[in-house]
Task: inverse folding
């Protein structure tokens, strides 16, 4: 069963200039799907469109067979989709705990669930647990990235949209981040990962899509991508 | 709410209650006005400090509350205590309108639009002289029969404490975090599932409501309303108060409003030069510590404690 189904969407930031052209994708329940492609292919735009930051001109996006057109990001978040943007998006003047609470308030009223979510996140990420009362601006780059991820995970989303988790991080933290993504996938979260780090994307995903100039140019299992890796890099990333 | 938190405002009221006995008639009046400014400054801090929406129309909302209440009382003979909330509600409604208008504006654009709004409001007030008596000023009925400052002191003290309690509750609740998240990074706030449109509107409405009510109380105390109260100087004073005390801190506007108002009375003989002095003070404070007096206190106090213990 597909959790998220993208059907022929076209959209862009300005009228008349489309970034995505008739993009279709299927993200199965419990799957780990990767999107790769060169700079400017529209990978991040696609995630922003799914999360409601951009309205699409044409096509339809279905989440659990329900249309999510015209929904605001906060409404989409309530449906069970979380979005981890590129870079760090913490609130620097708030403490780590307050940052996490902000993520937990999607299910306000349910204090028990909030507390459990908070404890679970502290368990998974001991790094931020020890700094829970520090202001977020005093975290190191890696810790801050982990906090950005943790505060999305606290609401235990059904679908996690991840945009370039490795950008600007030290290699050691990068592997930690990927390991975490793998673990949450094993825990039942469906993941849609956008990455420029092709090797990591192919390594982790089960199924991949390749975007080029705003359309899907190739799709297939990670096995197929592994076999064709050399050609892919030669043809599209360097330019034939 | 814990017992301590409930008792604290009552305690403050009790402590401040005997103050007029020593301050004398004139300084009681100054205190009344400074309590009015406490409400104004603190409610402006809600919108500018906590939510990051640098609105320059706060003084206009106060005047709106004052004029609405005064006109209703004069023309429809409603009791003053009913007129004041009406003034607050109208100001809140216009806050909703202005907030909606400015939803997509940021920083300087928001400042300019809200400033344009308050200027238009001032000109409208002067021009519709048949209703508002324009620049001649509208004499408003007083809340109490007397014009003496003494009894009003207790009203304004109560007003300030009640308003501050409500604001404290807002700032320290879930909504307070939403407000700060919008200030820090609006897009990240959306990603976190914060309905930014709703909460920005909420803050505009709430802070205008406070301004409207405070403005109405002020109008029924002073006994005179004129478009001068929508002059930009009025907004500038609010800005100076909040920035001197400490933008984004809860105590900042309170300290700022009271100290600036008293200082401004002490320097009255220097006339408009005061504004230059205040401007210099703001520049110095911005250089020394962006969190104003509260920020300076936060950095200096631990050092003093440190140097006395070792």
Result:
């Amino acid at each position: 069963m597909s959790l998220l189904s993208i059907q022929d969407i076209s959209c862009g930031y300005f009228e008349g200039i489309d970034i995505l052209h008739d993009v279709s994708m299927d993200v199965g329940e419990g799957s780990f799907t990767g999107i790769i492609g060169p700079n400017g292919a529209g990978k991040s735009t696609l995630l922003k469109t799914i999360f409601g930051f951009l309205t699409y001109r044409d096509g339809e996006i279905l989440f659990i067979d329900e249309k999510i057109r015209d929904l605001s990001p906060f409404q989409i978040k309530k449906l069970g989709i979380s979005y981890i943007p590129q870079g760090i998006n913490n609130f620097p003047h708030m403490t780590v705990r307050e940052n996490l609470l902000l993520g937990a308030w999607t299910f306000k009223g349910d204090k028990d669930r909030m507390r459990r979510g908070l404890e679970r996140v502290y368990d998974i990420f001991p790094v931020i647990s020890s700094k829970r009362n520090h202001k977020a601006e005093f975290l190191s780059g890696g810790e801050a990235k982990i906090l950005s991820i943790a505060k999305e995970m606290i609401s235990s989303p059904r679908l996690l949209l991840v945009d370039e988790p490795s950008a600007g991080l030290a290699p050691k933290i990068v592997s930690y981040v990927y390991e975490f993504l793998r673990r949450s996938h094993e825990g039942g979260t469906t993941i849609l990962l956008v990455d420029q780090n092709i090797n990591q994307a192919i390594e982790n995903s089960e199924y991949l899509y390749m975007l080029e100039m705003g359309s899907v140019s190739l799709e297939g299992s990670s096995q197929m991508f592994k076999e064709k890796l050399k050609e892919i890099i030669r043809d599209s990333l360097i330019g034939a | 709410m814990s017992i301590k938190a409930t008792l604290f405002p009552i305690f403050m009221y009790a402590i401040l209650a005997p103050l007029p006995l020593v301050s004398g008639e004139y300084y009681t009046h100054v205190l009344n006005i400074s309590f009015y400014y406490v409400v104004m400054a603190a409610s402006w801090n809600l919108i500018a400090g906590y939510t990051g929406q640098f609105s320059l129309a706060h003084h206009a909302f106060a005047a709106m509350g004052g004029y609405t209440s005064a006109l209703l009382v004069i023309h429809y003979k409603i009791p003053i205590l009913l007129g004041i909330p009406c003034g607050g509600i109208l100001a809140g409604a216009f806050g909703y309108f202005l907030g909606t208008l400015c939803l997509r504006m940021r920083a300087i654009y928001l400042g300019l639009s809200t400033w344009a709004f308050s200027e238009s409001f001032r000109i409208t007030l002067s021009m519709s002289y048949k209703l508002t008596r324009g620049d001649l000023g509208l004499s408003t009925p007083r809340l109490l029969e007397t014009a003496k400052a003494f009894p009003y002191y207790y009203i304004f003290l109560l007003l300030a404490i009640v308003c501050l309690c409500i604001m404290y509750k807002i700032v320290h609740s879930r909504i307070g975090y939403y407000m700060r998240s919008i200030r820090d990074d609006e897009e990240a706030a959306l990603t976190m599932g914060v309905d930014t449109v709703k909460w920005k509107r909420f803050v505009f409405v709430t802070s205008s409501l406070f301004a409207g009510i405070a403005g109405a109380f002020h109008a029924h105390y002073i006994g005179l309303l004129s478009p001068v109260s929508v002059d930009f100087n009025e907004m500038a004073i609010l800005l100076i108060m909040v920035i001197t005390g400490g933008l984004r801190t809860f105590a900042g506007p309170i300290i700022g409003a009271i100290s600036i108002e008293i200082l401004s009375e002490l320097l009255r003989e220097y006339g408009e030069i005061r504004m230059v002095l205040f401007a210099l003070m703001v520049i110095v404070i911005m250089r020394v510590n962006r969190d104003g007096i509260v920020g300076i206190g936060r950095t200096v106090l631990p050092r003093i404690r440190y140097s006395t213990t070792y």
